[in-house]
Design a protein that fits this description.
Elements (H helix, E strand, L loop, with lengths): L4 E4 L1 H5 L4 H10 L1 H17 L4 H15 L4 H12 L6 H13 L2 E9 H10 L6 E5 L1 E4 L2 E6 L6 H11 L7 E5 L5 H4 L4 E4 L3
Parallel strand pairs: 1-2, 1-6, 2-3, 6-7
Antiparallel strand pairs: 4-5
Helix pairs in contact: 2-3, 2-5, 3-4, 5-7
Protein backbone atom coordinates (compact mmCIF):
# COMPACT_ATOMS: atom_id res chain seq x y z
CA UNK A 1 0.00 0.00 0.00
CA UNK A 2 1.26 3.48 -0.87
CA UNK A 3 2.27 5.80 1.91
CA UNK A 4 2.19 9.54 1.85
CA UNK A 5 -0.07 12.46 2.58
CA UNK A 6 -1.32 15.29 0.39
CA UNK A 7 -2.42 18.41 2.28
CA UNK A 8 -4.71 20.88 0.54
CA UNK A 9 -5.71 24.34 1.66
CA UNK A 10 -9.30 25.18 0.69
CA UNK A 11 -9.63 28.94 0.04
CA UNK A 12 -7.57 30.23 -2.87
CA UNK A 13 -6.27 26.70 -3.45
CA UNK A 14 -8.99 24.09 -4.02
CA UNK A 15 -11.28 27.01 -4.82
CA UNK A 16 -10.11 30.26 -6.37
CA UNK A 17 -11.84 32.61 -3.92
CA UNK A 18 -12.27 33.04 -0.18
CA UNK A 19 -15.36 31.17 0.98
CA UNK A 20 -16.09 32.61 4.44
CA UNK A 21 -17.28 36.07 3.37
CA UNK A 22 -19.42 34.55 0.60
CA UNK A 23 -20.91 32.04 3.05
CA UNK A 24 -21.70 34.69 5.68
CA UNK A 25 -23.20 37.07 3.09
CA UNK A 26 -25.56 34.33 1.90
CA UNK A 27 -26.39 33.27 5.45
CA UNK A 28 -27.19 36.69 6.93
CA UNK A 29 -27.22 39.13 4.02
CA UNK A 30 -24.66 41.72 2.94
CA UNK A 31 -26.05 44.50 5.14
CA UNK A 32 -25.83 42.50 8.35
CA UNK A 33 -22.37 41.25 7.35
CA UNK A 34 -21.27 44.86 6.77
CA UNK A 35 -22.34 45.87 10.29
CA UNK A 36 -20.71 42.78 11.77
CA UNK A 37 -17.50 43.74 9.94
CA UNK A 38 -17.67 47.28 11.33
CA UNK A 39 -18.02 45.86 14.84
CA UNK A 40 -15.10 43.55 14.09
CA UNK A 41 -12.92 46.51 13.16
CA UNK A 42 -13.80 48.10 16.50
CA UNK A 43 -12.78 44.91 18.32
CA UNK A 44 -9.52 44.72 16.39
CA UNK A 45 -8.59 48.30 17.29
CA UNK A 46 -8.61 47.41 20.98
CA UNK A 47 -6.83 44.05 20.62
CA UNK A 48 -3.10 43.72 21.09
CA UNK A 49 -0.66 42.84 18.28
CA UNK A 50 -1.33 39.59 16.46
CA UNK A 51 -4.61 39.15 18.31
CA UNK A 52 -6.22 41.77 16.06
CA UNK A 53 -7.17 39.36 13.28
CA UNK A 54 -8.59 36.88 15.79
CA UNK A 55 -10.55 39.65 17.55
CA UNK A 56 -11.98 40.85 14.24
CA UNK A 57 -12.92 37.35 13.16
CA UNK A 58 -14.41 36.36 16.53
CA UNK A 59 -16.63 39.45 16.56
CA UNK A 60 -17.84 38.94 12.98
CA UNK A 61 -18.61 35.27 13.61
CA UNK A 62 -20.40 36.00 16.88
CA UNK A 63 -22.60 38.62 15.22
CA UNK A 64 -23.42 36.50 12.18
CA UNK A 65 -23.61 32.91 13.42
CA UNK A 66 -25.20 33.09 16.88
CA UNK A 67 -28.52 31.25 16.80
CA UNK A 68 -28.06 29.62 13.38
CA UNK A 69 -29.03 25.96 13.07
CA UNK A 70 -27.87 23.09 10.87
CA UNK A 71 -30.64 23.59 8.30
CA UNK A 72 -29.64 27.24 7.80
CA UNK A 73 -25.95 26.28 7.47
CA UNK A 74 -26.79 23.57 4.91
CA UNK A 75 -28.98 25.91 2.86
CA UNK A 76 -26.26 28.59 2.74
CA UNK A 77 -23.58 26.01 1.86
CA UNK A 78 -25.76 24.66 -0.95
CA UNK A 79 -26.25 28.16 -2.33
CA UNK A 80 -22.57 29.11 -2.26
CA UNK A 81 -21.57 25.78 -3.84
CA UNK A 82 -23.04 27.07 -7.08
CA UNK A 83 -20.91 30.23 -6.85
CA UNK A 84 -17.54 28.60 -6.18
CA UNK A 85 -14.86 28.47 -8.83
CA UNK A 86 -12.96 25.24 -8.27
CA UNK A 87 -9.31 25.17 -9.33
CA UNK A 88 -8.95 22.46 -12.04
CA UNK A 89 -5.18 22.09 -11.63
CA UNK A 90 -5.49 21.49 -7.89
CA UNK A 91 -8.44 19.12 -8.39
CA UNK A 92 -6.25 17.17 -10.84
CA UNK A 93 -3.52 16.96 -8.19
CA UNK A 94 -6.14 15.73 -5.68
CA UNK A 95 -7.14 12.97 -8.12
CA UNK A 96 -3.51 11.93 -8.69
CA UNK A 97 -2.91 11.64 -4.95
CA UNK A 98 -6.17 9.78 -4.37
CA UNK A 99 -5.34 7.26 -7.15
CA UNK A 100 -1.82 6.83 -5.72
CA UNK A 101 -3.37 5.84 -2.39
CA UNK A 102 -2.10 8.86 -0.46
CA UNK A 103 -4.05 10.09 2.55
CA UNK A 104 -5.80 13.40 1.85
CA UNK A 105 -6.00 16.18 4.42
CA UNK A 106 -7.80 19.48 3.89
CA UNK A 107 -6.65 22.21 6.26
CA UNK A 108 -8.45 25.54 6.15
CA UNK A 109 -9.26 28.68 8.06
CA UNK A 110 -12.84 28.24 6.82
CA UNK A 111 -15.48 26.84 9.14
CA UNK A 112 -15.90 23.08 9.30
CA UNK A 113 -19.70 23.48 9.47
CA UNK A 114 -19.82 24.49 5.79
CA UNK A 115 -16.48 23.34 4.31
CA UNK A 116 -17.32 19.69 5.08
CA UNK A 117 -20.62 20.10 3.20
CA UNK A 118 -18.90 21.70 0.20
CA UNK A 119 -16.33 18.89 -0.02
CA UNK A 120 -19.09 16.28 0.17
CA UNK A 121 -21.15 18.09 -2.48
CA UNK A 122 -18.07 18.13 -4.78
CA UNK A 123 -17.56 14.42 -4.01
CA UNK A 124 -14.05 14.98 -2.66
CA UNK A 125 -13.26 12.21 -0.19
CA UNK A 126 -10.81 13.26 2.51
CA UNK A 127 -9.13 11.40 5.34
CA UNK A 128 -9.11 14.46 7.55
CA UNK A 129 -10.43 18.00 7.77
CA UNK A 130 -8.76 20.59 9.97
CA UNK A 131 -10.83 23.77 10.07
CA UNK A 132 -11.98 26.57 12.32
CA UNK A 133 -14.63 25.25 14.69
CA UNK A 134 -17.68 26.87 16.23
CA UNK A 135 -19.36 25.99 19.52
CA UNK A 136 -22.67 24.19 19.05
CA UNK A 137 -25.24 23.82 21.84
CA UNK A 138 -28.41 21.79 21.23
CA UNK A 139 -27.78 21.85 17.44
CA UNK A 140 -27.53 25.66 17.38
CA UNK A 141 -24.35 27.69 16.88
CA UNK A 142 -23.58 29.94 19.84
CA UNK A 143 -21.49 32.30 17.71
CA UNK A 144 -18.39 31.55 19.80
CA UNK A 145 -15.30 29.97 18.31
CA UNK A 146 -14.03 26.69 19.77
CA UNK A 147 -10.36 27.60 19.96
CA UNK A 148 -8.29 29.61 17.52
CA UNK A 149 -8.89 30.01 13.80
CA UNK A 150 -7.17 27.29 11.79
CA UNK A 151 -4.91 29.80 10.03
CA UNK A 152 -1.18 30.33 9.52
CA UNK A 153 0.82 29.06 12.54
CA UNK A 154 -2.24 27.49 14.19
CA UNK A 155 -2.96 25.57 10.99
CA UNK A 156 0.66 24.37 10.89
CA UNK A 157 0.48 23.30 14.55
CA UNK A 158 -2.66 21.24 13.93
CA UNK A 159 -1.21 19.68 10.78
CA UNK A 160 1.98 18.72 12.61
CA UNK A 161 -0.10 16.92 15.25
CA UNK A 162 -2.19 15.20 12.54
CA UNK A 163 0.97 14.06 10.72
CA UNK A 164 2.51 12.52 13.86
CA UNK A 165 1.66 9.00 12.66
CA UNK A 166 1.83 9.62 8.90
CA UNK A 167 4.69 7.74 7.21
CA UNK A 168 6.04 8.63 3.80
CA UNK A 169 6.33 11.72 1.69
CA UNK A 170 4.19 14.79 2.31
CA UNK A 171 2.86 17.05 -0.42
CA UNK A 172 1.33 20.42 0.34
CA UNK A 173 -0.81 22.74 -1.77
CA UNK A 174 -1.46 26.27 -0.55
CA UNK A 175 -1.12 29.97 -1.22
CA UNK A 176 1.30 32.60 0.08
CA UNK A 177 1.69 34.17 2.54
CA UNK A 178 -1.16 32.43 4.39
CA UNK A 179 0.10 28.87 3.98
CA UNK A 180 3.86 29.43 4.33
CA UNK A 181 4.01 27.68 7.73
CA UNK A 182 1.98 24.75 6.42
CA UNK A 183 4.06 24.37 3.26
CA UNK A 184 7.26 24.39 5.34
CA UNK A 185 6.12 21.09 6.91
CA UNK A 186 6.01 19.28 3.56
CA UNK A 187 8.59 17.53 1.39
CA UNK A 188 6.91 18.76 -1.78
CA UNK A 189 5.38 22.24 -1.34
CA UNK A 190 3.30 23.57 -4.20
CA UNK A 191 2.41 27.26 -4.18
CA UNK A 192 -0.94 27.83 -5.85
CA UNK A 193 -1.60 31.21 -7.43
CA UNK A 194 -4.93 32.46 -8.65
Amino acid sequence: MATGVAIFDFDRTLIRQSSLAVFLAVLVGRRRLFFAGAAGVGSAVFAAGSDRREAFRATVLRRTLAGKNAAQICAAAEEIFLRLEWNPEVLAAYERHRKAGHRILVATGGLSCYVRLLLERKKLTVDGLLASEMVVTENVLTGEMAGLSCRREEKARRIKAWLADAPGEIWGYGNLPNDAAMLALTHHPVVVSR
